[in-house]
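Work Package 3 committed the consortium to producing structural models of liganded targets before the mid-term review. Because experimental data for this complex are still outstanding, the team generated a predictive model from sequence and the ligand definition alone, so that downstream docking and mutagenesis planning could proceed in parallel. The input record is reproduced below exactly as it was submitted to the modelling pipeline, together with the SMILES string for magnesium ion.
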Amino acid sequence: MKPLVLFDIDGTLLRTRGAGREAMDDAFLEVHGWKKATEGVHIGGSTDGRICLDVGVKYGATVDVDAVKAAYLVRVAERLEDKTRVEVCPGVFELLDAIGGRAHVALLTGNWESGAAVKLGAAGLWTAFEWGAYAEDAVDRNHLLPIARARARTRGLHHERAVIIGDTPADVACARAGEGHVIAVETGFGDPEELRSMAPDLQVSDLQQGFARVMNFLG
Ligand SMILES: [Mg+2]
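The resulting structure, written out as tokens with the ligand in place, is given here.
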């Protein structure tokens, strides 16, 4: 039976050299008048909904999430028009090619779906994914794996093993919370030692260096 392989986006599939955070800051400035609103707020491995809640706590105010989301989407698209800001992580295209017929491939990300589309579109990766679990599905990332599994089943994608590929301790925690497996990559926001301390099933420096081990793990 094919495994369900769920990719995180930021730091796993691609990097945007800070464009995501800048666009979020732009959006909070535009909607609420707050400067550098995400400063001091945990971003890596969070969800866009959770970031909005955390920024609200920081300012002691209620965030207009719909307005921030709308502004963010415009701003992130603008910033990623500069293609030098988008970098696909090493080995991503090769891995997606290699597992295409051998796994059910989808996204599991803290991005809003439309934001995921903008980022992946800028990287030439959007067409590689037909579906996913997104920030709209849950504020807490740890709830996303059961949602992704249920969504796979409704699409007729039968699987026993779900494997998350991600770059932060939050990806490892999310996999454990949903009784899934996890491959940690050191291409993003997670400190390698901290990732190791979370005991992922496999940890690789990047998907190119670790290609053979990742393929072996996926079976
Ligand atoms: Mg990430």
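Reviewers should note the following from the model. The longest helix spans residues 65-80. These observations will guide the Year 2 experiments.
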